[in-house]
Amino acid sequence: AAKAEKSENPEHGLRKWQKKALRAGKPIETESEEEQGPAKKARVDPKVLVPISPACCTAAKAAEAPQAPTPAPAEASSAAEPAGPGKKIAKRELRLKLAQEKQHLGLYSDTEPILLVGEGNFSFARALCRQLKSGKGVYATAFDNEAALNRKYLDAADCRKEIEEQFGGTTLVGVDASKIHKVKEFRGSFRKIVWNFPHIGSGETDVEKSIENHRKLLAGFFASAVQCLDPAQECHIHLAIKGGEPYKSWKVMQIAKAAAPELVLENAVSFALGAWPGYAHRRTIGFNEKFSKKDSEELAKGAKVYIFVRPKAEAESADEGDEGSEE
């Protein structure tokens, strides 16, 4: 019954001012959320409140703070280039490489007759003709006869054909580099004589004996080559040798001085493989798929071209001496 009374009582649950308004016959108005203010808002159960850590507050403030603009990504090319000291070293090495190639190329000219000996597959002679854009003054020789040459070097025929037909050069086979003066047409005819990477190729396993054999080979070459230089001109003999042993033990300078005293070492420059596109170093025994590519790459590791000069004055005095002996 008590519950029924409460439910029937129209003032039940009303506030005092609402009851007064009801009794006065005025319409009851509820306060808006704005009029109630923060103090009159619905209460929150303290049991469901979650404590906020200082880290969360810091993160929230950081999120509200204005963000700095994201830097634009660097270009791919700049990322690929070496930075700092590495970039400087790379540039310095490139400059050195280009300078060495220019120096090696500058040794030869199409205005002077050049004799190449020990050519193997004739790829250096072909590269020289390509760079000079002419082969009219180029005479390239190989030790092997025709049959042996074609058997050992499959690319030799193509190289010779290009040298002769496209550039007007001359190729000869069966020429011993230590006896080139025996070719009558060669005597006193050249301003430059070039032998790149001489090697007997005998397969001698005794290192000391092999060194001695190569010294004899070089002595024969120098003694023969000076007889093929133009007596009226300053002339040069170029000998390219790999770096390190056993080549160092060949004692190239001492052998040259003993075999041809009129020769003077003028310079020694790096053999710049990049200066001669198409040149492929070959062993005396012939092409070998396993070793030949590696052999060419080794030329970039310390190989030198020793440049010996036979001064014009020496040539004139030698001629005078010959005339005196004939009398």
UniProtKB/TrEMBL annotation:
Single GO term (MF): rRNA (uridine-N3-)-methyltransferase activity
Stored InterPro entries: BMT5-like
A Gene Ontology term for the protein's cellular component: cytoplasm
Region (Disordered): 1-46, 67-87
GO biological process, one term: rRNA base methylation
Residue stretches making up the 25S rRNA (uridine-N(3))-methyltransferase BMT5-like domain: 115-283
Regions of compositional bias (Basic and acidic residues) in chain numbering: 1-14
Protein name stated in the entry: 25S rRNA (uridine-N(3))-methyltransferase BMT5-like domain-containing protein
Species, as recorded: Polarella glacialis
